[in-house]
Amino acid sequence: MAILALGVLVSAFALGLILGSPFIKLLRHLRIGKQIRREGPQSHLAKEGTPTMGGALVIGVVTSLALGVLALLPESERGDYVAQTVAPLGALIAVGVLGAVDDYVNVVTGTGIRGRHKLLWQLLVAGIGAIYIQRHFGVTGIYVPLVGEWEIGAVAFVAVAIFVIVGFSNGVNLTDGLDGLAGGTLVFAFLSFAFIAAARGFPWLVVLCAALIGALLAFLWFNVHPAEFFMGDTGALAFGATLAVVALTTGFVALLPLAGIIFVAETGSVILQVGSFKLRGKRIFRMSPLHNHFELIGWPEVKVTIRFWLIGALAGITAAILAFATPV
To answer: Taking CA 59 as the corner, what is the angle to CA 222 and CA 199, rounded to the nearest 5 degrees?
Structure first.
């Protein structure tokens, strides 16, 4: 199984590299260019018109390889494969469609879909995914690091799952503001949960994580500074939701805030900034999300990205070790 996962990872990376340049040319031909927020850092205005919706490439590569693996499997193994991958793959595609529509509306109008409308779709997808995971795997608890399983009941698990899926979908979206930032931190988070899935006996989930990691690495080839294209909401919303579904399937959703610490910090900075301004009339950060604050205090974009990557890598390794040290 490890060899298959490695083969899928390498295949996803190679396929992403091969298709990357033609896909970017297609986006340029269709004039799918990013509209930059005027209230953001002024240095970002130079990125106006850079092709977006790059997440569609990753989604396409991962979906193609996932279907390819399914077609090659013997009938006796297809049931387990579908059971372990249908929820994360479904979240990837369903939320990716939402993000693609949002990106297109942004290109046409400069604003995008209203937040409440996006939230309704996210809640629907999250609800379906949460109920499937709970019922199919009979989940009634979550694993607390170093302690073991904590029973919370089926209803509570579904509620937590919906909250986590929607929260991380938006958290990754908030993080996607610098070249390579969201993509790199996602690689470390998915890598962490690939090892956790292996330890928990979800081999096909490992294979799907490998496809995501390989495709994201290929995306980063073109997305590192200066970015040739962006993942857009097509990718950011979808990858965040998928990461949450993977974590929920393994049972170690309690480790998700650690493995995804950058996404939590970015979301937290926005909540604190808005709350502080409404309650006190004062801002805590120069600008939120958090990466904008560090830019405005003088850190170059590449330095912010790499330092956030380092934190994400350390957090991902720590999360995986804690999972291995937890009795199951």
So the answer is: 100
Rg (CA), the chain: 19
> Does the structure show a pLDDT above 70 at 310?
yes
Both tokens assigned to 261: 């610490």
58 contacts 217 by C-beta, under 8 angstroms: no
Sign for the pseudo-dihedral over CA of 215, 47, 272, 313: positive
Query: Could you tell me which of 65, 71, 73, 72 has the C-alpha nearest to residue 89?
Result: 65
Q: Which two tokens stand for residue 137?
A: 């795997």
Cα angle, residue 15 at apex, residues 10 and 18 outer, rounded to 5°: 125
> Biggest alpha carbon distance in the chain?
63
The number of angstroms, rounded, from the C-alpha of 46 to the middle of its chain's C-alpha atoms is: 26
HEC sequence for 36-74: CCCCCCHHHHHHCCCECCCHHHHHHHHHHHHHHHHHHCC
Q: What number of residues does the chain have?
A: 328
**% of the chain at pLDDT higher than 90:** 86
Asked whether 290 and 265 are in contact (CB, 8 A), the reply is yes
CB 200 within 8 A of CB 250: yes
Cα angle for residues 40, 44, 48 (degrees, 5° grid): 110
Quote the Cα angle for 63-51-106, to 5°.
90
pLDDT in tens, 87-137: 999 999 999 999 999 999 988 887 778 888 899 999 999 999 999 999 999
H or E segment and range at residue 217: helix 203-223
Report d(CA 94, CA 82) in Å as an integer: 17
What the block records as the tokens of 93 is: 């595609």
Q: Whole-angstrom Cα distance, residue 63 to residue 215?
A: 10
State both tokens at 234: 């097509």
